[in-house]
Amino acid sequence: MITYMYDIICVTNRKLCREDFLTRIEKICDAGVSRIIFREKDLSENDYEVLAAKVIERVQKFNTPITLHTFENAAVNLKCRSIHMPLSNLDMMNRTQYFTQLGASVHSVSQAISAEKSGCTYITAGHIFDTDCKKGLPGRGLDFLKSVTESVNIPVYAIGGINSGNISDVIERGAAGVCIMSGLMECDDPKTYLKIIKRGETYR
Q: CA-CA distance, 86 to 56, in Å (whole number)?
């Protein structure tokens, strides 16, 4: 597995894949991402748990860490002790102590501080740059990211429009790493994509 000086995390979106989703997961793991956040929160909890079990089986072959998303009971049933929650759901969790990793998405400094106080061990902050995933909504920018990283004592991962041209700027603002969705879901070859991202070149 490739080791970077910062984390590169894949956030999944099966609807963006142009090939079998589980095959794409294996390719992303083989490319050497730091972690998979299995999002797919549009599914019912039962359907999410069924697909999550298949994803966990695939990532274990590569020893890639996985974080489940939103569905607390599914994570417990699958013995996954890392979960990412919507910020509004943190106070409604029943098994906070079960999880060794607890994350949330934040969009302001006050939300970042609240997430840390609620027990989060990391947060994602975004969206930093303009992205097709948030069409019509301008990115919050690098100054926002710096304000967030300086407001908390837990790792902050930048998300939204991250690419080879801006990843170094993100890290310079104190981010522990980045989350990438569409780039890894849509690229022709995840291994080549990650190498190019790291070098600061343009992926074609």
A: 21
Q: How far apart are CA 100 and CA 155, in angstroms?
A: 14
**pTM, rounded to two decimals:** 0.93
Domain edges within the chain: 7-199
Q: 7-199 — its CATH code?
A: 3.20.20.70
Within its chain, how far is the Cα of 75 from the centroid? 16
Q: Determine the 3-state secondary structure of 67 from DSSP.
A: strand
Residue closest to 158 by CA, chosen among 149, 86, 90, 186: 149
Helix axes 190-199, 21-31, angle to 10 degrees: 40
How would you write the pLDDT of the chain (204 residues) with one tens digit per residue? Answer: 444 579 999 999 999 999 999 999 999 999 999 999 999 999 999 999 999 999 999 999 999 999 999 999 999 999 999 999 999 999 899 888 999 999 999 999 999 999 999 999 999 999 999 877 766 678 899 999 999 999 999 999 999 999 988 999 999 999 999 999 999 999 999 999 998 887 755 544
Backbone angles phi, psi at 156, to 5 degrees: -120, 130
Residue 181 burial (CB count, 10 A): 21
Integer CA distances (angstroms), 181 to 33, 76, 100, 121, 131, in order:
12, 25, 24, 21, 10
